[in-house]
Specification:
alpha/beta, 8-stranded mixed sheet, 6-stranded parallel sheet, Rossmann fold, globular
Length: 375
């Protein structure tokens, strides 16, 4: 199977849903992964071989924090030029390097003009929109993003989402295209034995831990309230910090019981989680978070750690048997205390997480694509 995948993140970024699913596809497949330009992660303008994935960077429209650049790409004429350059760039690379695709998948709505060109060139090729985030919920997007989003879902033959909550922002007209394929966890990675980490061996207090990116969706006030109310607990925040959140994180770590550790390699996360008594997801409820299904829900559970979280997504109540969903600060702190004093059975949490192994989810996704091709 030859797949063209137009992505909104780079292949070498954090190990997200796309990397987990695609890296497990059969080695006989060929996945051409078109990634965006970045100032943080290295740009690769020639094909990189990560069989079955071959990634290459092609600049295109994207969310931008710089107000001047955002102003410029909000001009229709500028967007058209960028889109035509990107399409031409892609088609030239395709001509010299790629065979005809069996299927085209996009998780980046800004590539729709190129995808329509491919559809005109290969009328029988199916188009899949892998919708793993609400593209309209980010603050740094071009004002025309809704137009790109609507054109993408109307052009796509099918729309893949990780959870039913994502149907909140997909117009009812297109719900008949939707297929739910969940997020998950690299289950075996989270079963490794405990390794000695000197940092934590010196701590006798209970440990709270958050693992993941820290940005606008993070509830800094909640974390500060926890640190003051539970001053005999050590709080560790593990993960990269967004540009807009650097000062807020600096303010947090002024508290004597809050520490921040920069990004930890995915296969090393379990070494830190072993030391946690309770894991947390302190997210604000927003347009973005109200539909997300965080992988860390399954990762915490796979490690046998109780997860205390805010009620940022009302649809996650289906997991309330395994998660501790809190309606307010008082309830969040109470859930932490209860789980420190009387944690749930690790075996129960691990059994829950094992049902969402990326290994099985990848097989499901692959079989689904083959089925769409055969249709």
């Amino acid at each position: 199977m030859i797949i063209y995948w137009f992505s909104e993140i780079k292949w070498g970024y954090l190990k997200t849903r796309k990397q987990q699913i695609l890296s497990r596809f059969p080695i006989s497949d060929q996945i051409i992964f078109i990634e965006p330009v970045s100032r943080i992660t290295a740009n690769k303008y020639s094909l990189q071989n990560h069989r079955p994935v071959y990634n290459i960077t092609i600049p295109h429209l994207r969310s931008i924090a710089n107000s001047l650049l955002l102003y410029l790409i909000n001009i229709k004429f500028v967007r058209k030029i960028i889109s035509r350059i990107a399409t031409t760039w892609f088609l030239v690379i395709q001509f010299f390097n790629f065979n005809r695709p069996n299927i085209v998948v996009t998780s980046n709505v800004y590539w729709i003009d190129t995808i329509i060109c491919l559809k005109n060139k290969y009328p029988d090729v199916k188009i899949i929109y892998d919708c793993n985030d609400n593209p309209l919920a980010f603050s740094t997007i071009p004002s025309s993003t809704r137009e790109y989003f609507l054109r993408t879902i109307s052009t796509a033959n099918k729309i893949v989402i990780p959870h039913k909550s994502y149907t909140q922002f997909i117009p009812e007209l297109y719900l008949n295209k939707v297929k739910i394929i969940s997020n998950g966890v690299d289950y075996n990675v989270f079963q490794s034995k405990k390794k000695f980490l000197n940092l934590f061996e010196q701590i006798s207090d209970p440990i709270l831990m958050y693992v993941g990116a820290i940005s606008d969706w993070f509830d800094y006030n909640l974390v500060k309230a926890i640190s003051k109310e539970l001053n005999d607990v050590q709080i560790f925040l593990l993960g990269p910090v967004g540009k807009s959140s650097i000062l807020k994180v600096h303010e947090l770590i002024l508290e004597k019981n809050i520490s921040h550790i920069p990004s930890v390699p995915h296969n090393k996360i379990i070494d830190y989680l072993h030391y946690a008594n309770v894991c947390i997801i302190p997210f604000l409820k927003s347009e973005l978070t109200s539909t997300i299904l965080p992988n860390k829900i399954f990762e915490y559970s796979a490690a046998g750690k109780p997860c205390v979280m805010t009620k940022f997504n009302n649809y996650l109540d289906e997991f309330e048997k395994y998660l501790f969903i809190s309606n307010n600060i008082g309830e969040f702190i109470s859930n932490i205390k209860n789980n420190i004093e009387s944690p749930p059975k690790k075996s129960q949490l691990k059994e829950f997480a094992s049902q969402y192994d990326w290994k099985d989810i990848s097989k499901t996704y692959h079989a689904y694509l083959l089925n769409i091709i055969d249709e």
